[in-house]
Amino acid sequence: MILNLFIVIFFAGNCCTMKSTKAREGYPAGYLADCPGSTKEAIISNNTLKYLSIYVQGNDSLIRRRYSYHETRFLANDPDLDFGKKTMLYVGGYLDSPSFPFSTLMGVSYKSIGYNVLLLDTNYFTTMEYPRAARFMRPVGKYTAKMLADLTQEGLDPTMLELVSLSLGGQTSGFIAKNYRLLTGMNISRITALDPAGPCFRNLGPADRLDKTDADFVEVVHTNIDNFGMAAPIGHINYYVNGGEHQPGEYFWMLCTEFCSHVRAHALWIAALTYHESFVAIQCDSVQQARYKKCYDRVPQVTNYLGLKANKTVQGIFYLATTNTYPYFMGKKGLKKEYDFYTNITTTLNKSKLLKI
Ligand SMILES: *[C@@H]1O[C@H](CO)[C@@H](O)[C@H](O)[C@H]1NC(C)=O
Ligand SMILES: *[C@@H]1O[C@H](CO)[C@@H](O)[C@H](O)[C@H]1NC(C)=O
Ligand SMILES: *[C@@H]1O[C@H](CO)[C@@H](O)[C@H](O)[C@H]1NC(C)=O
Ligand SMILES: *[C@@H]1O[C@H](CO)[C@@H](O)[C@H](O)[C@H]1NC(C)=O
Ligand SMILES: *[C@@H]1O[C@H](CO)[C@@H](O)[C@H](O)[C@H]1NC(C)=O
Ligand SMILES: *[C@@H]1O[C@H](CO)[C@@H](O)[C@H](O)[C@H]1NC(C)=O
């Protein structure tokens, strides 16, 4: 009785002085964390496979040739492919298509830096309810890997093959790479996953989602980790942009919503292809530290770049500060907390004792 009373008083006392903490509030579960049955088999029939196709981007941005799964042998002879050069395969997200801007922009950007550009068309397999589309990404990965393995027989060198993927495509690229290794015994050299999808994949293990063991080098750009993206550091290098949860709005007054934050990863990568060594990221000890923007004071300060100039041997979790408008990079200012976008605004406000309007 006395003990009970003590407990009531103890907790009552605690409740009203206790600050907001994660122990009290909990952590985000993440949007659509689990999709029961998502690891069960999904089958694409031979008749439907013709919808899985790869576009080859020509020199002129308007020229692109489409090859279905059954036409891979013609794909190898496309006049715009030169297997002496590096090759980038772009894997789009939910509802995406090579005709839409995300693919087009990425294709033109890689073409301009001398790559062969392939754009995967998964539109037929993603234009349906999301959890069903997520499940179809396994066989899509398997058959795409078969196309790449057939191209390898025609001269495509996996050490010069890079996958760039957005959102659901991030998980698809994992399935492509796993199956490519099964078929050829070789690894794809690089996977760049731009805010890989969390919904239906958040709580799955390495065999059922993208993982750093899928390719020689896997980098992940996290921009919306609790909603459309994924919080786990699943790559060799994991960039948590502005903490990874949400991004500053392009138009100052407007919040960058979940979708806006999610696709920011794509815009950042496009910018990083042009502005080398401009996106400077700082290493963190944990994802939590990155979320709380607490990596600035870590000693020693270890840095890396976002983009093709990243030092692949300096791995782990990184905090990347950006501005709110294209081209987003902060250069060396990104290493100092006072330049951090919202930190700057809030500390500036804190300096005035009184606001008057
Ligand atoms: C699959 O379909 C393609 C084209 O429609 C056809 O050429 C091929 O023979 C079919 N393969 C099988 C195993 O039925
Ligand atoms: C595209 O441009 C490259 C480099 O300028 C050239 O080698 C190649 O032949 C061109 N491809 C076509 C199909 O004209
Ligand atoms: C491919 O990557 C896996 C996982 O990182 C590694 O165990 C394997 O040795 C690699 N294979 C080759 C041929 O490099
Ligand atoms: C990458 O980082 C390692 C370890 O800090 C360093 O030894 C190496 O020189 C760096 N490579 C490049 C290309 O900067
Ligand atoms: C903070 O933001 C203001 C207004 O955008 C800018 O003039 C100032 O240079 C910034 N200060 C720092 C330390 O970034
Ligand atoms: C805000 O200003 C107060 C003084 O008015 C200062 O003690 C405090 O450290 C400031 N907080 C931050 C986060 O700068």
From TrEMBL:
Location within or outside the cell: Secreted
Signal peptide: 1-23
GO terms, biological process: lipid catabolic process
Keywords: Secreted, Signal
Lipase domain location: 84-328
Superkingdom as given in the UniProt entry: Eukaryota
Protein name: Lipase domain-containing protein
Source organism: Euphydryas editha (Edith's checkerspot)
